[in-house]
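Attaching the record inline, Q. Sequence:
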Amino acid sequence: MITISVAAADYATSVALFAREVWVEYYSPFLGFEPIDYMLNKFQSAEQISRDIKRGYTYYVAHDENRLVGYCAARLDEHSLFLSKLYIERSYRKQGLARKFFELLLQMAREHDKSYIWLNVNKQNEAIALYKHLGFVVTDAKVTDIGEGFIMDDYIMEYPI
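Structure, as predicted:
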């Protein structure tokens, strides 16, 4: 049985280790190892996750018994909720876990009277289909220089509330 809870900053190392496993498996085919390693160190390290939590991000973690099988992170903005991260272990994908995370985020957004949820997603990411299925629409595209010669080529997607 899968349970979802809010992660405290002291759980950041576990989340970072899990992120490395998922990212290498999922993103290697279309991003390559070098950019993945750079982005993991920059955005998914235990230190960065701890900083995110202290800066107001909420990290939800999903466990199947004692095994971490997915997580997502979000931050409330002035008028919206920013979905920063959503990662699920391969064997747990397409089983409704992303929807469970989304429902928690939707509840959070509604409780704080936000008008939409938004995210950035790599233009080559198969998860675009999932987000569209959940009701997100592409509203823009953005290329961001993240340093060391790497860029993020993303769609911006929104879910109106």
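Residues 120 and 156 are 5 Å apart (CA to CA). Residues 2-160 form a domain with the Aminopeptidase fold (CATH 3.40.630.30).

More tomorrow.
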